[in-house]
């Protein structure tokens, strides 16, 4: 998601930021250092409990980290023809999505540029969408523009959203929930309704850290009570935006507004898994006329991972060089706490995108040696169906 927030001209009643999330005072009481992110006050790290960004990052990799992601947009699309209407917008095959199943997808413009990335889950007779916080008002406007009148879009503004991520996430959360199935029966990208602390909650086994974990939608009025319940578990610590960013970078996951923008296509972004096979063959989604030829012929550039020598990190905007010639730009970069070295993502010409390709990065006049590597930088540990 982007770190900027623009209030669209879609509705004069859309609020301007920074706004307070349901857990605002809860974060401050726990030592959260609050920053303006995506139009909301959010904790970048916790000065007391968390121990700093690197400590919070490593705790999540080793145990379970609690993230407040209530700034993200939660949307329910339902009504007669909702499935066909969404397929006319998104490059997703909803016919193969089971009840409770979640899938990654993309919101594209007519030129094939990425307006946002999102998650789509089949809920009963409709679909639950989670979109990025900085783009949610634009996303809602875009969806309303394309959805027919008989399809209803509800912005679930009264719901908070948590993420519990890490190898101990299931052990920490399972004793707190009751449902028709045990929480441990959920596999990656599957969700179900549960009672969490006596409160109705939707829980999916998903997240954006590369770790096993869950995303938890609950009523905003119960957010602090349920956050206390989860964080009372010995495996759990509160984690801020700083570690959330370094975790997703290690996992090779792109960040909207940085690694994806409305001028970047899914082929260049290496996100073809977000366009299902049937949709590649049939088209019929917004942007298909631009994207399908690129799938057939290939794009000129590609998002790649870069391992950087030394200890200095290359940040967004740094120039990527090949034999002193400018060939690309870093879109995300930082120091990897898990690997104890700097890493980055960048767009480079496809003939320089093969793993092992030697490049360099200009950081304030200093050239850092780098090489293209496969992503993720740190292996994903999702709890997939059929896995040991």
UniProtKB/TrEMBL annotation:
Keywords (alphabetical) are: Aminotransferase, Methyltransferase, Transferase
Q: Which residues form the GCVT N-terminal domain?
A: 24-277
The GO terms this record gives for MF are: aminomethyltransferase activity; methyltransferase activity; transaminase activity
Domain Aminomethyltransferase C-terminal: start-end pairs: 302-378
Q: Which reaction does it catalyse?
A: N(6)-[(R)-S(8)-aminomethyldihydrolipoyl]-L-lysyl-[protein] + (6S)-5,6,7,8-tetrahydrofolate = N(6)-[(R)-dihydrolipoyl]-L-lysyl-[protein] + (6R)-5,10-methylene-5,6,7,8-tetrahydrofolate + NH4(+)
User: What processes does the entry annotate via GO biological process terms?
Assistant: glycine catabolic process; methylation
Q: Which InterPro entries match?
A: GcvT, GcvT/YgfZ/DmdA, GcvT/YgfZ_C, GcvT_C, GCVT_N, TrmE/GcvT-like
Q: Name the GO cellular-component terms.
A: glycine cleavage complex
Q: Which domain of life is it from?
A: Bacteria
Q: Could you say which EC number(s) this protein's record lists?
A: 2.1.2.10
**Where along the chain is substrate bound?**
215
The record's listing under Pfam families reads: GCV_T, GCV_T_C
PANTHER family recorded: AMINOMETHYLTRANSFERASE, AMINOMETHYLTRANSFERASE, MITOCHONDRIAL
Q: Which family does it belong to?
A: Belongs to the GcvT family.
* Record-given protein name: aminomethyltransferase
| Origin species | Novosphingobium aromaticivorans (strain ATCC 700278 / DSM 12444 / CCUG 56034 / CIP 105152 / NBRC 16084 / F199)
